[in-house]
Amino acid sequence: MAVHSHFDTFVRSAFGIEPGGRVGVQLAMLANAVSLSRGVAAPLDHAGDQIVFVAQGATKLSAHASLDREQIVAFHFGGDIVSIPSDGPHSYQLTALIDSELLIFPGREFLDLAATDAIMARSMLERLPSALHRCRDKAVALGQKSALERLAGFLAAMTERVGKLIDGKCTLDLPMSRRDIGDSLGLTIETVSRQLGILREAGLIETRGRSRIVIFDLATLTRWAGHLDRTEKISGDCSNLISINAATAVAD
Amino acid sequence: MAVHSHFDTFVRSAFGIEPGGRVGVQLAMLANAVSLSRGVAAPLDHAGDQIVFVAQGATKLSAHASLDREQIVAFHFGGDIVSIPSDGPHSYQLTALIDSELLIFPGREFLDLAATDAIMARSMLERLPSALHRCRDKAVALGQKSALERLAGFLAAMTERVGKLIDGKCTLDLPMSRRDIGDSLGLTIETVSRQLGILREAGLIETRGRSRIVIFDLATLTRWAGHLDRTEKISGDCSNLISINAATAVAD
DNA sequence: CGCTTAATTGAGAGCCTTCAATCATCGTGG
DNA sequence: CCACGATGATTGAAGGCTCTCAATTAAGCG
């Protein structure tokens, strides 16, 4: 059964817990396994917070300030855990960027259970601050940075998440559209396109088709992101990033 | 001793734990009690994440994108717990807005300990998602909203946090300067001042001196914040907000 | 009461958005 | 396999919102 296979990998990979144990069994009772096709929003119970495990695929968590204003708050990939607010001032939804497999949990029950198990609790207490800190870095970008800095930062971050070496070149196959990128950075698609053009003409990147981007100069890209100067730390290539990817299964 | 008095109120009020128990004793060993005067930044160990309990006072958590670009990521008041990132792309610091009392913990050890105690774990698993969701709402504001909407939203949020009834009027005594407000909303002080003027001329608020703001029409203010339409839920006065304040000791 | 600092107000500039048109990409059907 | 159509992306011109720079006013403290 597909439910159990994803569920088992979930409890094992995310928490290092055996599915057959007390916590594993109780978690299984809470889980709602869902397959989402590209572009489809997850069926969420907006009465309370939800916790979602992205077993496979890629998703975006977006908030709607009004019907025509969407802010993407985070992207997620396989192995990530997402905490979704019940609708407060904004309405949130989780949408699949590519076909994805999800496990949806009611937030309160999930956390009640997590608190009773030291391993699971520690894991969540690791992931949630990470998600928070990412969100803060995003807030800094949205509040203080120029369009070019935001896009450079976005590409640098994506390189760490989904960067691959193809033909010896650091390559991104982005699952999200220009609109998604714009909605994530608080920019219009036109501005995203223009800034990409600037990076392209500067020789930092190359775009191939709609979704592929080749990173030529990650060090400069990171410097252009407007971060505090720690450029000596950046390696400059992405040959070692694949190994990092596996380790950073961070919530949000 | 001041250390113990704050510490005791901390473990009791924040977690409902007895200071004398196992967890209480271990927490006490990790705690670093600090008194901060207005304007002073907390002494943080930037080698790792930190968890800070704001026992008393008011603080701002700010990130520096560059030397002259500061983004305030959150404000905190007595009873709040703050999670502070070790410096990644941005350098974070926690600064007292008024004289404040803090308990500073090393993040890893604090969370290690929290995971072993169900009550403490549950408390943190309640607070961290709340902080995350607040940060997301902030990201929506920074990414999608106009200056006027941001300021209206800020005032509405502050009303829930520090709103008091004075002479029968809903009143805010803001501990932060216009610069702080601007740094929090991604705006300049001039823009903050201008938008305040608009709200004033619209009859929604009144400013008295530098720090006092009287809220005349919270319902309209909330509507102007550009949130999705749920105005029927907003009470319109702030007579019941003081009781809410006590209940929402949320991290960040 | 005077001084220092913060806040307000005004004018001009810049960055991003909006509106519009063209081009490219990719899935589909012949 | 190629042509075609639809959608997404790019490029250009004009406008708007916020920022910058500058001057004035107000507030709070000694």
Report the total helices of chain A.
9
What radius of gyration of chain A results from the CA coordinates?
19 Å
Q: What ranges of chain A have pLDDT less than 50 throughout 5 or more consecutive residues?
A: 230-234, 242-251
| Largest interface: pair, residues per side | A-B, 55 and 56 residues
Structural class category of chain A:
alpha+beta
Strand content of chain A: 25-35%
Oligomer category: homodimer
3D shape of chain A: globular
Explain this structure to me?
- The structure is a homodimer of 252-residue chains.
- The first copy, chain A, has 252 residues and is of the alpha+beta class.
- Helices cover 44% and strands 27% of the residues of chain A.
- Chain A has nine helices and nine strands.
- In chain A, α2 packs antiparallel against α3.
- The first copy, chain A, is globular, with a radius of gyration of 19 Å.
- The interface between A and B is large, with 55 and 56 residues.
- Chain A binds a DNA duplex (30 and 30 nucleotides) through α7.
Note the topology.
2 copies of one chain form a homodimer.
Chain A: H1 2-15, H2 22-30, E1 32-36, E2 50-66, E3 69-77, E4 81-84, E5 91-106, H3 107-116, H4 118-144, H5 147-162, E6 164-166, E7 169-173, H6 178-185, H7 189-201, E8 205-208, E9 212-215, H8 218-224, H9 241-247
Antiparallel strand pairs in A: 1-5, 2-3, 2-4, 2-5, 6-7, 7-9, 8-9
Helix pairs in contact in A: 2-3, 3-4, 5-7, 5-8, 5-9, 6-7
Chain A binds a DNA duplex (30 and 30 nucleotides) through helix 7.
